[in-house]
Amino acid sequence: MLKKNYSKNKIEAGCDEAGRGCLAGPVVAAAVILPSNFKHPLLNDSKKMTEKQRELLFPVIKKEALAYGVGIVTNEEIDKINILNASFLAMHRAVDLLGTRPELLLIDGNRFNPYNGVEHVCIVKGDSKYLSIAAASVLAKVTRDEFMNKAAAKHDGYDWENNKGYPTKKHRLAIKKFGTTELHRMSFNLLGENQLKLDI
Length: 200
Known about the structure:
Layout: E1 12-18, E2 27-33, H1 51-64, E3 67-73, H2 75-81, H3 83-96, E4 104-108, E5 119-123, H4 131-154, H5 160-163, H6 169-178
Parallel strand pairs: 1-4, 4-5
Antiparallel strand pairs: 1-2, 2-3
């Protein structure tokens, strides 16, 4: 059973990201402030939900939330600042878009760069513990999946409509065969091989 609150009387925003381990596309984060009476039988850690369940919940969360924001950091930005900093930046951008200023950020994970004087707490596997983080995980995941589905239509052969940019065997074989696209993260080990090997 997901918990409603971490604190007793603070305005809390749950924050989570999607796409951190992908080889292509942006990292997307969401921040969500839910009303105290929010509940929905489908809401869980987005990784434990089906794609259809996430898509059903997506408009419900946007409609019922007191405030929400979705932040995107491109693959070019990821290559410049690294994926950890990009994940934090995506969360900051999501919080920037909240119509209500939170007093406490519930961060999924174990690390975070502090946001503009707003208190935060890091919660490992928070998306399976707190409603607001689970809601954020759904918004981030659906937004990113939609982006990769559209990208798949332009870049045939990489199987993005199924792998969403994650490092599957099919995705890596396509990179080997067709090369990289403008959406690939060039700072990542795209082929999954030892990149120090020299072709002699």
